[in-house]
UniProtKB/TrEMBL annotation:
Residues 1-248 form the Malonyl-CoA:ACP transacylase (MAT) domain. It comes from the Eukaryota. GO terms for molecular function: transferase activity. This is Malonyl-CoA:ACP transacylase (MAT) domain-containing protein. It comes from Ambrosia artemisiifolia (Common ragweed).
Length: 250
């Protein structure tokens, strides 16, 4: 799933979930589409897209997934509003250099403003999250670390970091009350980049959420990105230009 941008973006997440699953139906209606769907042997999604992947794999119903996505969005928005944070994409450095950049920025700011790597998007493109002052320090130092460029992400908070911890308990209680079944195919988690099928494990990892690399290393042949935007296709192509990936949007 693509990431929505802009303030109040969490309200858009249910629409992205619905649109992504509508794209599945577009694929199903295509000549030979049902055979493609039946032949899929593993699925995954980036951030919100993991919920779409789990619904596609039959781990929970469309309706339950929609409820979870709505609650997740509200909880993350509340956490973002309570602790002002930001995200920036660092382009042109390997993970060690990005970590060194974060360490250097963190030496200059207070604990509450510190930053961390939030998303390993692909080689040479890492998203860093944290307090606004910490992110500003990262941007100021990026050139001296030989980063090609930095791009401030238009999100409402420091997602995928400790800043989101207040959202965890809300999500955990909602997940514990949700009927999650064993998916018909494994779903690779954003948390540990491993395929999971056990419902209890899925509940734990969804509350916490390096995935594409796992797929490529296991012999990914052909893949489909279902939903708005081409975020995953871009990441896959940067990691392996020969990999076949097709985007289908509703």
């Amino acid at each position: 799933g693509a990431q929505a941008v802009g303030m109040g973006q969490e309200a858009l997440k249910p629409a992205i979930y619905v649109t992504s699953l509508a794209a599945v139906e577009i694929l199903r209606a295509r000549d030979g589409g049902q055979q493609i769907i039946d032949s899929v042997d593993v699925t995954c999604g980036l951030s919100l897209g993991e919920y779409t992947a789990l619904a596609f794999a039959g781990a929970f119903s469309f309706e339950d997934g929609l409820k979870l996505v709505k609650l997740r969005g509200q909880a993350m928005q509340e956490a973002a509003d309570a602790a002002k944070g930001a995200m920036v994409s660092i382009i042109g450095l390997d993970s060690d250099k990005v970590q060194q950049l974060c360490d250097a920025a963190n030496e200059e700011v207070e604990e509450a403003e510190k930053v961390q790597i939030a998303n390993f998007l692909c080689n040479g493109n890492y998203a860093v999250s944290g307090g606004v002052k910490g992110i500003e320090a990262v941007e100021a130092k990026a050139k001296s670390f030989k980063a090609r460029m930095t791009v401030r992400l238009a999100v409402a908070g420091a997602f995928h970091t400790r800043f989101m911890n207040p959202a965890l308990s809300q999500l955990e209680s909602a997940l514990s009350a949700t009927d999650i079944k064993t998916p018909r195919i494994p779903v690779i988690s954003n948390v540990d980049a491993q395929p999971h099928a056990d419902p209890e494990t899925i509940k734990k990892i969804l509350a916490r959420q390096t995935t594409v690399k796992t797929l490529l290393s296991r012999g990914l042949v052909k893949s489909y990105e279902l939903g708005p935007g081409k975020v995953i296709a871009g990441i896959v192509k940067r990691m392996d230009k020969t990999s076949l990936i097709e985007n289908i949007s509703a």
